[in-house]
Design a protein that fits this description.
The protein is 60% helix and 16% strand. With 371 residues, the chain is an alpha+beta fold. The chain has 2 domains: 231 residues, no CATH class; 93 residues, no CATH class. Strand 2 and strand 3 form a beta hairpin. Helix 3 packs parallel to helix 10.
């Protein structure tokens, strides 16, 4: 392995890769420690008030918190790390000898691309295979200790269970798992064949079915209609769960980020039938897992381009420009999500917007970089 590395990677390649990855890991570690400290101070009352045990706090909440913020901060920390150590190399006149020794600027970029590829691969694997499971630990802990008193019920919920069945619920009580003013309609094409109404409906979590209290049925056969009312409860299996009638802020709870990819794909397929309005959030989350790691290459190119030139003031100016670009990237990323949810943009296009815009900027900066 060492022979292979020495054959294809020069001393300068290994030097730059060591600086790149070392600075990235060290800076990311510092930011994670700071994030944990601030989070502990913010949620200390929740931990003490709910009497959460230390084991759950460490191995459930922070076992999900740390990987989540690791992936959240990774692109920006990577960007700042590249700027910091590259500007320091330029300030110490270490880049000029490299570029004047028959090595082109693009050859100089090779160790950066290799290092970015390592971070990209790790980010992609974590995003797809690890983070959803660690997020679920965090979401479950938060639901039990942070948001238990929040009113998460939806009002006037319409759900399509299949091609022929539609459900309406005026309100739902998550604590009692009971819905009020229930109505279910069955259609044959555009013609309604049956309507079932009830004042309340309750979910039996032990038997995994719904109990419809005193249902009234209306049957329609052309111009002929019949009505039946039952004084007893009706037990029935319906393709819906109490969670379908609860409101979730995905930005706060990250509930879709806690779904493994197969579960998320199944939920998207079901939401496309039900049309409850959550499908855009789900599709954005799905595409984000694959597209977001590409920012590693985009931000690395921008970082090298703006920090490889020696300037007065040393590292300060490139680092200041880098911080400004970081905030701009965050704003564009948030606007992309808003455009998708509120503006009707395709989630796949929206999730590519930050990388495309900053990719164009990176290409222009690389072309104009001193060579």
């Amino acid at each position: 392995m060492k022979r292979l590395l020495r054959r294809y990677l020069t001393v300068i390649d290994r030097f730059i890769m060591g600086k790149y990855l070392g600075t990235f890991v060290f800076t990311l570690g510092i930011f994670l420690v700071i994030s944990v400290i601030f989070d502990i101070s913010e949620h200390l009352d929740n931990f003490l008030g709910k009497n959460a045990n230390l084991h759950d706090i460490i191995f459930k909440y922070y076992a999900g918190f740390i990987p989540f913020y690791l992936m959240l901060l990774s692109p920006l920390i990577n960007f700042l790390a590249v700027i910091f150590f590259t500007a320091k190399m330029a300030n110490q006149t270490e880049i000029v000898p490299i570029l004047t020794s028959r090595a082109s600027f693009y050859r100089f970029l090779r160790p950066y691309v290799i290092s970015a590829s390592i971070i990209f691969t790790a980010s992609l694997l974590l995003n797809v295979y690890v983070i959803p499971y660690t997020n679920k630990l965090k979401v479950d802990f938060e639901s039990a200790n942070f948001f238990a008193n929040d009113d998460q019920s939806k009002l006037d919920v319409h759900i399509q269970l299949d091609k022929h069945t539609y459900v309406y619920l005026q309100s739902f009580d998550p604590a009692m798992q009971t819905g009020y003013q229930f109505m279910m309609e069955k259609f044959d094409g555009d013609e309604m064949k049956q309507r079932l109404t009830a004042t309340s409906i309750k979910y039996d979590s032990l038997k995994n079915h719904w109990i419809i209290n005193t249902p009234t049925r209306r049957y329609v056969n052309g111009l002929k209609e019949t009505w039946t009312t039952s004084s007893t409860s009706l037990d029935t299996v319906l393709d819906m769960r109490p969670i379908d009638f609860q409101a979730h802020d995905n930005v706060v709870s990250n509930i879709y980020g806690a779904m493994p990819l197969p579960v998320l794909n199944a939920a998207i397929a079901k939401e496309k039938i039900r049309s409850t309005g959550a499908v855009i959030d789900m599709e954005f989350e799905k595409y984000r897992r694959f597209v977001e790691p590409l920012s590693t290459f985009v931000l690395t190119c921008i970082g090298v381009a703006i920090s490889s030139r020696k300037v007065r003031g040393g590292v300060g100016l490139p680092l200041g420009i880098g911080i400004f670009i970081c905030f701009t990237y965050i704003v564009v990323n948030k606007f992309a999500l808003v455009f998708s949810i509120k503006g009707g943009f395709d989630p796949l296009i929206s999730v590519f917007i930050p990388n495309v815009l900053f990719g164009i900027l990176g290409y222009i900066l690389i072309v104009k970089a001193p060579k």
